[in-house]
Design goal:
single chain; 19 strands; five-stranded antiparallel β-sheet; about 30% helix; alpha+beta
């Protein structure tokens, strides 16, 4: 018998009778892994990012709607924004004010929304592979918003957490539904029709989310405007009383006829606004109350707006300045204020200043949004026209400037005196309590420093030389001390006295003008002022922190030859 050699071994798939390998039993064909599922395509990733953004949109829309019902300031964007403002270093805040001016809050809100959109897109991409992790991320963002809301200084209820929590729940539900459309199991023989069906379902669900979120946003705005209309109606219905002590007429010579100079009275729409409120409080004057309490107040008192207006009403022209105003900056304005003397009200409540044996040396004003501002009791009771103001330039206070009542104290920077949307006054001591700005590096006491500014010509202006002198003009202020002299220097030449506008009062700024016989070339113009006590404005440059900037304002101009 002829022996035949064994057949050559074939590939494993061609050997149906191969023996079992030790410790590794054969698996039935049904349990063997099939072809690897391909990873998500570029389109899938784009749709996943869109899913995250739509989930964020839906969550924010629901949060905004709930916030209208709870409290507008409890919404996640205002709450997180205020938390960011509270924890931002003072130097960064000053940079934001210098760079963006009164638009700093809008820039912050836009930045928060952009960041949320990026986070939402990232969570949408994560949901393609790890849906549970993505949903956990949404929950964490909701918890962060809730924590920011309930830890606001003006938060009085755990219900402030509801907008963020319900918004996060909505976002999680939307992300789950949309991610399911992109990640649902497909048949083994995946074909074009199955892919189209998944994406079609995603697009339909996404369109539904967009419509629902937009409807919720519009509803929130409608309800918010209804609530705001009550406050607006109370302001419109307010009739300012005639002052028992009217402001003297502005002297004719106070307004210099110079083009480009700041108007003597700053219109309300142009008056600077610097505060931490992302949402301007719109307080209903009909329900507003002012509470006065604390050390040295025998019995706590409460006043309504009509009760305040029935007291002796005074009218005064007072210039306000912000401590964040850099040398030559725009954060200063002059207005005619109507209100009641704060000292009279405090005395009616039994308060005495420290010079008369009073136990409290600090008056802490609280705003409806939780801001606290500390003012020396002695300063508001030393005879100056410290006011609780409800009128500004002949009309009720604008909402942006503190309606229905704010503080105005001449001679002090706003951060230690000018509390807007006032809700309470507490008598205490500087040793016992630090107001909002003090732990953030600002001085507890901050009298206004003498400052002067060149309004015209503007920096780097080109001026045509001619037979007539060039008007160099601006304003100077040293509230509660007054301005007695303004001088201008051209390049490194001598100081030359400028013409001063008539003084309205020592609590207002003064306009000035210097007639300069300009010569061709590049020149530097510098200004300085002397206050009513004879003290000359210092030329030493200092930053706004901790109690206001110092230095001389200077502009460079070019005079063109004829």
């Amino acid at each position: 018998m002829t022996a035949h050699p064994p057949p050559p071994p074939g590939p494993p798939s061609d050997r149906p009778d191969q023996p079992e390998q030790p410790g590794r039993p054969d698996r039935p064909a049904s349990s063997r892994p099939g072809p690897a599922r391909p990873g998500p395509t570029v389109t899938d990733r784009l749709l996943a990012a869109l899913a995250g953004i739509l989930a964020g949109y839906g969550g924010l829309a629901v949060a905004a709607l709930v916030a209208v019902l709870v409290r507008p300031e409890a919404g996640p964007v205002p709450a997180v924004g205020d938390a960011v403002v509270d924890r931002t270093p003072a130097a960064v805040k000053d940079w934001a004010i210098r760079t963006f001016g009164e638009s700093d809050k809008a820039v912050l809100e836009a930045g928060i929304l952009v960041l949320l959109a990026l986070l939402a897109a990232a969570l949408g991409l994560l949901a393609l592979r790890r849906r549970a992790a993505a949903l956990t991320g949404v929950a964490l963002l909701g918890a962060l918003g809730a924590l920011a809301a309930v830890t606001r200084p003006d938060s009085t209820s755990a219900s402030d957490a509801l907008p963020s929590l319900l918004g996060a729940a909505t976002a999680a539900a939307v992300l789950y539904v949309l991610a399911t459309r992109l990640t649902r199991p497909r048949p083994a023989t995946t074909g074009t029709a199955a892919v189209r069906s998944d994406r079609r379902g995603f697009l339909l669900a996404g369109a539904g989310v967009t419509v629902g979120a937009t409807a919720a946003t519009l509803a929130a705005r409608g309800l918010g405007s209804t609530r705001s209309e009550h406050a607006a109606a109370s302001r419109s219905a307010l009739r300012l009383p005639r002052p028992a002590s009217p402001a003297p007429a502005v002297p004719p010579g106070a307004r210099l006829p110079v083009e480009g100079i700041s108007p003597f009275v700053t219109p309300n729409k142009d008056f600077y606004r610097v505060d931490t409120a992302l949402v301007v409080p719109r307080v209903d004057a009909d329900t507003w109350r002012l509470r006065i309490h604390g050390t040295g107040v025998p019995e706590e008192r409460s006043f309504t707006l009509p009760e305040l207006m029935r007291r002796q009403v005074v009218e005064r022209d007072i210039t306000l300045a912000c401590v964040s105003n850099e040398v030559g900056g725009p954060l200063v304005g002059n207005a005619r204020w109507l209100g009641v003397r704060l000292a009279d009200l405090l005395r009616a409540c039994g308060v005495r200043p420290p010079s008369e044996g009073g136990r409290a040396d600090q008056l802490v004003a609280r705003s409806v949004d939780g801001m606290t501002i500390g003012t020396p009791v002695e300063d508001v009771m030393d005879g100056r026209d410290a006011l609780l103001a409800f009128g500004m330039n002949g009309e009720p206070l604008p909402f942006a400037h503190g309606f229905p009542v704010r503080m105005v104290v001449p001679g002090l920077y706003g951060y230690v005196s000018a509390c807007k949307w006032l809700s309470s006054l507490e008598l205490t001591t500087f040793a016992a309590y630090d107001a909002y700005w003090v732990p953030r590096g600002w001085s507890a006491r901050a009298p206004v420093k003498t400052q002067s500014r060149i309004d015209t010509p503007r920096p780097f202006a080109r001026i045509a030389a001619g037979p007539r002198p060039v008007a160099v003009a601006g304003v100077a202020w040293a509230q509660h001390r007054g301005v007695s002299r303004v001088e201008v220097r051209v390049d490194d030449g001598p100081w030359q006295e400028a013409e001063l506008g008539a003084e309205d009062s020592r609590d207002t700024w003064r306009q000035w003008v210097f007639r300069w016989p300009a010569t061709p070339g590049r020149h530097v113009l510098t200004v300085r002022a002397t206050d009513g006590t004879g003290a000359v404005q210092t030329g030493r440059r200092a930053d706004v922190m901790p109690d206001g900037a110092t230095g001389w304002h200077a502009v460079e101009v070019t005079v063109a030859a004829d």
